[in-house]
TrEMBL record:
Protein name as it appears in the record: G-protein coupled receptors family 1 profile domain-containing protein
The organism's taxonomic lineage, starting at the top: Eukaryota, Metazoa, Chordata, Craniata, Vertebrata
GO molecular function: C-C chemokine binding; C-C chemokine receptor activity; C-X-C chemokine receptor activity
Species in which this protein is naturally found: Seriola dumerili (Greater amberjack)
Membrane topology reported for the UniProt record: Multi-pass membrane protein
Any one annotated GO CC term: external side of plasma membrane
Amino acid sequence: MLIIVSIFFLAIPGNLLVGLVIGTSRQPLTPSDVYLFHLTIADGLMALTLPFSAVALVQGWIFGDFLCKFLSLIIEANFYTSIIFLACISIDRYLAIVHAGESIRNHQKTCSRILCAAIWAFGGALSLPALFNETYKFDKDSERLVCSESFDFGSASSWRLATRFFRHFFGFLLPLCIMLTCYSITIARLLRTRGFQKHRAMKVIIAVVIAFVLCWTPYHITMIVDTILRADMVQFNCAMRKSVNVALVATNSLALLHSCINPVLYAFVGEKFRKKMLLLFQRKLRQERVSGTRFSRSTSQTSDGNGAVL
């Protein structure tokens, strides 16, 4: 529970700040900026569901059937969209470095917002099975009400297995292949160039890939093992089942940690973002000074007026 609460308090301010800086920027946004803005929305929405998960770990599911299904839908949708947006950022960085100055970049700027809308729709469509998979029921082992997948042992139907396949393919394998391909070509190009900024970009790219693999690979491996057990493909005992359940909780927390790392890797380490953040703070300070000056003048005029009456 402590880990989930910590992730919540780290993810919300980080993603909120990144979204605020990008959303209030007066400069034209690049496609990566647009994807990063939508990524912060997806990660932020995911983080907002964490307090419910934290309470459920301690007291069981006390929020009713509607929130069980609704929050499951939100989690699934943002699970897909956030990872697909990461893949889009890798494609844009590949185009920006490997195909810099080509007309495709200008064309992509006009398509990025349309693509974001399509990604949200795609993520929403992939998350719809959560409305049927998630059930509000009493768990005999924990003696609590739980909100969990309706995926009973030995009765894994084809469509339920298909939803697990979609989760692994569209939520991990395909985005990972896209990221590895784009970033490998990008690094190869950067190795042929000189300059501090180029080598710094290469270090950031390597950190992005490592963070993605470390945070998400354990979760998907555990999910595959869980699917095999639930589909009754191998024999297992209660101890093995409990071990997988514990591993699911642990690896899920590790995967959620990625929503805290994203703002750091994709925004705070970038010089361009830090400049935008500094400009935002300077603009806010100027606005506060102007409003403070106006308030002082208004107070002074009121005092003068009252003095004249007296």
